[in-house]
Amino acid sequence: MSRLAICPGSFDPVTYGHLDIIQRGARIFDHVVVAVFNNQGKHPLFSVEERVYLLEESTKDIPNVTVDSCEGLLIDYAKEKNANAILRGLRAVSDFEYEMQITSMNRKLDEHIETFFMMTNNQYSFLSSSIVKEVAKYKANVSDLVPQVVEQELQKKYKLLG
């Protein structure tokens, strides 16, 4: 049986912290589906289609990773894909409390799909998409925080938003 993990998130935009988790997960699981969710509570800078494109470009050299988008409950999406696992990254203790609630609910909805938490590499523990957007908005260098394609798209977005 193939070990398939879903790595969910809003990825607005994808950062090196996200890619750290995706790459390491790809070494553990046979296949990783990076699932872009449209979180209604957030106001994304990039459309779902743009985020999928940026992730596809950023993960194109990882053969066992595919990118998809979805709406609805993560656990329903995981069942639809016949996933064995959900892969989540943790930056700090503050992430754990939130993630624990989601994991507990997912377990209640389907006890056969396990959630795996992976600590982000220390060099990315401070990094979030929100911080990247804030810094990029003021034209600061984000080249060591995001892939080049993301940096270019951030520059275009903020140029258009003026």
UniProtKB/TrEMBL annotation:
<keyword id="KW-0460">Magnesium</keyword>
<feature type="binding site">
    <location>
        <begin position="10"/>
        <end position="11"/>
    </location>
    <ligand>
        <name>ATP</name>
    </ligand>
</feature>
<feature type="binding site">
    <location>
        <position position="42"/>
    </location>
    <ligand>
        <name>substrate</name>
    </ligand>
</feature>
<dbReference type="GO" id="GO:0015937">
    <property type="term" value="P:coenzyme A biosynthetic process"/>
</dbReference>
<comment type="function">
    <text>Reversibly transfers an adenylyl group from ATP to 4'-phosphopantetheine, yielding dephospho-CoA (dPCoA) and pyrophosphate.</text>
</comment>
<dbReference type="GO" id="GO:0005737">
    <property type="term" value="C:cytoplasm"/>
</dbReference>
<keyword id="KW-0547">Nucleotide-binding</keyword>
<dbReference type="Pfam" id="PF01467">
    <property type="entry name" value="CTP_transf_like"/>
</dbReference>
<feature type="binding site">
    <location>
        <position position="18"/>
    </location>
    <ligand>
        <name>ATP</name>
    </ligand>
</feature>
<comment type="similarity">
    <text>Belongs to the bacterial CoaD family.</text>
</comment>
<feature type="binding site">
    <location>
        <begin position="89"/>
        <end position="91"/>
    </location>
    <ligand>
        <name>ATP</name>
    </ligand>
</feature>
<feature type="binding site">
    <location>
        <position position="10"/>
    </location>
    <ligand>
        <name>substrate</name>
    </ligand>
</feature>
<dbReference type="GO" id="GO:0005524">
    <property type="term" value="F:ATP binding"/>
</dbReference>
<comment type="pathway">
    <text>Cofactor biosynthesis; coenzyme A biosynthesis; CoA from (R)-pantothenate: step 4/5.</text>
</comment>
<dbReference type="InterPro" id="IPR004821">
    <property type="entry name" value="Cyt_trans-like"/>
</dbReference>
<comment type="subunit">
    <text>Homohexamer.</text>
</comment>
<dbReference type="InterPro" id="IPR001980">
    <property type="entry name" value="PPAT"/>
</dbReference>
<keyword id="KW-0173">Coenzyme A biosynthesis</keyword>
<feature type="site" description="Transition state stabilizer">
    <location>
        <position position="18"/>
    </location>
</feature>
<feature type="binding site">
    <location>
        <position position="88"/>
    </location>
    <ligand>
        <name>substrate</name>
    </ligand>
</feature>
<protein>
    <recommendedName>
        <fullName>Phosphopantetheine adenylyltransferase</fullName>
        <ecNumber>2.7.7.3</ecNumber>
    </recommendedName>
</protein>
<feature type="domain" description="Cytidyltransferase-like">
    <location>
        <begin position="6"/>
        <end position="134"/>
    </location>
</feature>
<feature type="binding site">
    <location>
        <position position="99"/>
    </location>
    <ligand>
        <name>ATP</name>
    </ligand>
</feature>
<keyword id="KW-0548">Nucleotidyltransferase</keyword>
<keyword id="KW-0808">Transferase</keyword>
<dbReference type="InterPro" id="IPR014729">
    <property type="entry name" value="Rossmann-like_a/b/a_fold"/>
</dbReference>
<keyword id="KW-0067">ATP-binding</keyword>
<dbReference type="GO" id="GO:0004595">
    <property type="term" value="F:pantetheine-phosphate adenylyltransferase activity"/>
</dbReference>
<feature type="binding site">
    <location>
        <begin position="124"/>
        <end position="130"/>
    </location>
    <ligand>
        <name>ATP</name>
    </ligand>
</feature>
<feature type="binding site">
    <location>
        <position position="74"/>
    </location>
    <ligand>
        <name>substrate</name>
    </ligand>
</feature>
<keyword id="KW-0963">Cytoplasm</keyword>
